[in-house]
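Work package 3, deliverable 3.1, input record:
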Amino acid sequence: MDIQITTQAVREVVCDALLVGAAASKTGETGVTLSPATMAVDELLNGLITERSAEGEFKGSSGELLTIHPMGKLAAKRVIVVGLGKPDAISIRSLQRASATAIRHAQKTGAHQLALALESNTGIDNVQAAQALVEGALLGQYTFKKYRSSQNDKEITQLRILTGSGDTAKIEQAIHKGQILAEATNLARDLINEPPNTLTPGELANRASTMAKQVGLECEIFDKEKIAELKMGGLLGVSQGSIEPPKFIILRYRGAPQSTDKGLALVGKGITFDSGGISIKPAAGMDEMKGDMGGAAAVIGAMQAIARLKPAMNVTALIPTCENMPSGTSYRPGDILRIMNGKTIEIVNTDAEGRLILADALSYASKEGLSPIIDLATLTGGIVVALGHTMTGLFSNDELLTDEILAAGRLAGEKYWPMPLDEEYSEQIKSDIADIKQSGGRTASSVTAAKILENFVENAKWAHLDIAGTSYVDSKKSYQEKGATGVGVRTLAELALRLAR
Ligand code: BES
Ligand code: ZN
Ligand code: ZN
């Protein structure tokens, strides 16, 4: 898609659809609050938008759409007014979603050339709003259709951004940043949506390596022999039931080559398919377990964005990847595995495989002296029960790091909720015959999983993001299709920019 800024007036911009916003009225008041661009459109249309909202046809509630045919009063063929919700509830997240909803609608109705008028009365800084709207637009137009024989041509080819009266240079920068972040998110979505018969651990490594070449990152792939040499017993154990060999992917970005600080580590769970193994999962919904590499995809996407945004710090991505399959060679309940740092884990359920491969990656990260370490994983069903599909569970041994992630999340339009790591939860993961028991049972299962990971981070500052509920949506939304969300990519990139300051 070709994205360009234009200083043209709303009346003059030639396009299939012009997207403008309108906020709902404050509680107790009537009518909608029009942005300056929407107001200009309203005037050109002799007050049609104001009239429609006075009639109650359009209330400006979040994601609501009003389509108008200007009949030659504007150069645009159509105007799509999108509701932004109540003024005090407008956030970067809601702007992204409004923009995504509008663009998806325009795309469905066959528009190719779009114009988007930026908002300046949302209470959100103009430059941040510009970034959010562009992100939303590019995230909204995303579809995964490479395997559909009937490719339709409903594609947006051009997006013109009307800047209004804002600081054009800063807005231009924000648009560029939004584009980088959205493209990285869509890369993660492509990886997650790719079926597990093509996206094997080897193919995930190939994709990471291709991306690294494109943006100038260092890339190293460890094969099974090297993994065995490093004594990564978790990754070897989980992968032994599959004919697909495991890989350990390393991507390095050196934004502070002079620094003695080893920098940030991003660790992503890369289970390309989680059948549960010998403790096999029920059939219903098992197909969604192609998305069990959502953490890995988020980290790969984030590294692409980081390479393009160039924060002044070093960042290393570590991705353990394999398949979890049942077979005669699978690991079993009752087995004991030895992780890279020497600690032993008693296996009780082969479906709790993510913590085992992450244990090796976290051991590797702390041995390298990397800090802080952030891991992302579609780790537990427990976090889906606790937080649903709205918020990602955030576990951390460092309060400042927690605050940084929450702040980065707000900038990214992604929600995180702090979860506990109290020592009392360790009772549940005591083993009689090994250092750690692999599963703490049904209660607080997302917490006990995080407690297991904590054993492998040594002295590093560390945060664990359980994205099991947020990485994949099982039904379509107005702002995105069913499937991968790409959650985590934008938060990690914003975090790297913050930590580099
Ligand atoms: N990959 C799953 C977790 C998951 C659940 C991801 C739902 C996405 C959506 C993980 O490997 C798993 O199976 N966890 C089990 C562990 C249990 C058997 C101890 C869980 O949380 O139910
Ligand atoms: Zn599992
Ligand atoms: Zn899993």
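Residues 168-193 form the longest helix (26 residues).
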